[in-house]
Every structure is written in structure tokens, then in C-alpha cells.
Amino acid sequence: MAERLRCAVIGTGAIGLEHLKSLARCPQATLVAIAEKDAKRCKEAADAYRVPRSYTDYREVLDQPDIDAVTIALPNYLHAPVCIEALQARKHVLLEKPMATKLKDAIKIVETAKKMKRTVMVGQHLRFGRHTQIAKDFIDRSQIGEVYHLRAFWLRRSGIPRIGSWFTQKQFSGGGCMVDLGVHLLDTCFHLLNDFDVKTVSAQLHSKLGPKGIGNFDWGKSDIDPQKPFDVEDCGIALIKLRKGSSILLDVSWAAYHPPQGREHGIDILGTSGGLSLFPARLFRDGPNGYESIELDAPKLPHSEDRSHHFVSCVLQGKKPLVTLEESLKVQQVLDAIFVSSSTGKEVKLG
Ligand SMILES: NC(=O)c1ccc[n+]([C@@H]2O[C@H](COP(=O)([O-])OP(=O)(O)OC[C@H]3O[C@@H](n4cnc5c(N)ncnc54)[C@H](O)[C@@H]3O)[C@@H](O)[C@H]2O)c1
Question: Does the beta carbon of 125 lie inside 6 Å of ligand 1?
Fold first, then answer.
């Protein structure tokens, strides 16, 4: 086993910089190269993280045989094509969410990864969070009995990542808040349930405030053009029923007139002998003196809290990552069904 993984980051926008920061302090990784099409951002990132090689064309990174792995932090429409090219160039891939903008492209990633015998992990960072890990451990040790329902929400009042950027154009993003925020919650809910086997999906998406220019949030580095049409959802709900009987209610918005108080995002988990809520992790149960609400903590977590460090260590040790590609494909299937259900007005059955 090699001692260090030689890594590159493709795309050094808002989240690409986070990946650079985390790889730069990873004891098992050597940060070798970056690719960023904006020459100014490329140079700034290379200087800030002292990356020896930097390019404005990502193919120059893929052409280098001494690079083992790439992190792809590009706009969503580039995830599948660049991931597939990277796999064909024999690189392992840490891929930003969502896996792809279309289900058929996600399937192609899975096929190519298998063929090239390379690891791909979708960077679902919520799974690595301290409180998710604590809750998952609690559930796995049957501490709240049978888990039968999860209520997951991410309710931004004014959180559209830059109206007029690629985020708000369907051809580049694949969707709005469901693809951006819902994907994290879906992945985390299935992971907590230990069950990705969905029977039906019923959803309703709305696009009410974004098209009027309401709800902007200054996130991201890419160019904006406010004249471009806003053609994605800024709010949506979904009811997901799993084959074994549990259910998930998903409620997501980038922008909406919500009440000002309360958690912006969280998951409430109902079990037959107790409940949990995230974030942070709290336990609710009947105690000797009435209903108890206890903040949970753990001295040691099963996984690193840093998804990049986890990915690097899995590749070096030849282990399956916490987020498997098969699981991410299931999440993509559900996202796809959410869009079909909303546009047809019907419940979608998954095979
Ligand atoms: N896990 C998370 O919490 C999280 C948070 C935000 C964004 N993301 C995901 O990360 C990805 C990037 O989002 P962002 O917020 O950093 O967007 P961004 O617009 O800030 O950055 C994208 C970068 O990619 C560069 N780029 C575009 N085309 C390129 C090409 N062909 N070659 C090289 N570089 C190119 C752009 O110039 C830009 O710097 C998205 O998929 C998004 O969904 C994840």
C-alpha cells in the first residue's frame, strides 16, 4: 500500500476551496495539482495552497499518470462527463453532489467505475457530521426501537445560491433546492434507516420567488447573468415510502416566507421506543420522571468527520467508502422520481 495518495482538485470555486483546505491538511494525501478554467481563480488557489501544478484545462490533470485521485467540484452538469473521463484515465474520484443531473449518466458512472476498478465516492458531507454519526450509532444499537418515520427539512428563507448563476438554470444544475439541499437529506435519511429500497415517491415542486428575483444568497464563484431564466424549483416537498414500511417526509426550500425562528435544517427520527432529532443529536424518550430530552455525545466516532480524509484512507486501504456508489445511484433514482412525480402529478413506483 502506498503511504500517500497523490491528489488533484478540479474546480476551485466555493466548495473546491474547501476541498483544497482539507486535502492540504490530510496526512495521507499529497496535493499535486489543480484545474480551474478561470485563470485568476486558478492562480489564486494554487498560490494559497502551494499547489505545484495548475491548469485551466482539467484534461491536463487527467493526462498525468502520477496523479492517483481527483476531487471534482464543478457545476453539476459536468459531474458525470468529467468523472467518466477521470475513471477512464484510471483516477479514483471524490465527486461533489449530486452524482449527476440525469439518472442515465449516474448509471454510466457506476458502470465505468466497475469496469476501471476505481473508487468513486459522492461527497455527501452530512453523513460524516459528528451528530449524524452519533444518531446512526444509536439507531444501529436499537436504542430507539424500530425506526418507522423520518421528517427531514432544510428551510432557507433567503438562500438561493446566486440568481443567474449555473445553480438556477436547469440545463446546468439539473434542478434547484431538491438537487442542492434535498439530496443531502435524502442520502442521510436512507443511511440512518440502513435502507435505500424505495417503493414509491410522491412530490410537488414550486418555483415562486426565484423567478421574481426574491431570495438571493451570495454563494459561489461562477459568473452570473440575471437575464438568464430561473427555471428550477425554489421549494418542494416529497413523501417517500420504503418497501419495508418506513417513510420519509422531505420539506425543502431555497427561498420562502417561513417563520423566522427554529432550526433551518434537521431530521426528526421516530422510533418505537424513542425519538431522535438532528442537528445536534438529541434523544427523546419516556423516563421515570416524564418525557426526557437528552443531548447526545460520543467519545469516539466510527468515521473521520472529514469526507476527503475518509476517501483518501479508503482508496489507500482498498476499502469501500462510507458512501457507496450503489447507494448514491439509489438517491439519484429518487431525485429523478421526485421530478417525474411533480411534473406528472402522479405517484411514481420504483422497480
Ligand atoms: N457538499 C456541499 O455542501 C456543497 C456545497 C456547495 C456546493 N456543492 C457542490 O459543489 C459543486 C461546485 O459548487 P460551487 O458552489 O463550488 O460552485 P462555484 O460556481 O463556486 O464553482 C464552480 C467552479 O468550477 C469552475 N469550472 C467550471 N467549468 C470548469 C471546467 N470545465 N474546468 C475547470 N473548472 C471549471 C468554475 O470556474 C468555478 O470556479 C456543485 O456540484 C455543488 O452542488 C457542494
Answer: yes
Q: What is the dihedral of CA 287, 291, 297, 300, to 10 degrees?
A: 40
Q: Which CATH architecture has domain 5-126+305-324?
A: 3-Layer(aba) Sandwich (3.40)
Residue 124 CB–ligand 1 contact under 6 Å: no
Q: How many whole angstroms from 75 Cα to the centroid of ligand 1?
A: 5
- Please state the length of the chain: 351
167 Cα to the center of ligand 1, angstroms: 9
- Report the topology of domain 130-299+333-349: Dihydrodipicolinate Reductase; domain 2 (3.30.360)
- Ligand 1 centre distance from Cα of residue 37 (Å): 11
Q: Parallel, antiparallel, or unpaired: how do β-strands 92-95 and 120-122 relate?
A: parallel
- For the chain, give every domain's residue range: 5-126+305-324, 130-299+333-349
Q: Residue 183 and residue 322: Cα distance in Å, rounded?
A: 16
Ligand 1 site, residue 271, Cβ cutoff 6 A: no
For the sheet containing 247-253, what is the strand order?
290-295, 282-287, 275-278, 265-271, 147-155, 247-253, 235-242, 198-206, 348-349
Task: Kindly state if the Cβ of 12 falls inside 6 Å of ligand 1.
Answer: yes
- Minimum CA distance residue for ligand 1 atom 5: 15
Per-residue pLDDT of the chain (351 residues; tens, 9 = 90+): 578 999 999 999 999 999 999 999 999 999 999 999 999 999 999 999 999 999 999 999 999 999 999 999 999 999 999 999 999 999 999 999 999 999 999 999 999 999 999 999 999 999 999 999 999 999 999 999 999 999 999 999 999 999 999 999 999 999 999 999 999 999 999 999 999 999 999 999 999 999 999 999 998 888 888 889 899 999 999 999 999 999 999 999 999 999 988 889 999 999 999 999 999 999 999 999 999 999 999 889 989 999 999 999 999 999 999 999 999 999 999 999 999 999 999 999 998
- Is the CB of residue 94 less than 8 Å from the CB of residue 311? yes
d(CA 331, CA 338): 11
Q: Could you tell which of 221, 307, 331 is best to mutate to test the pocket of ligand 1, judged by most ligand atoms within 8 Å of the CB?
A: 221
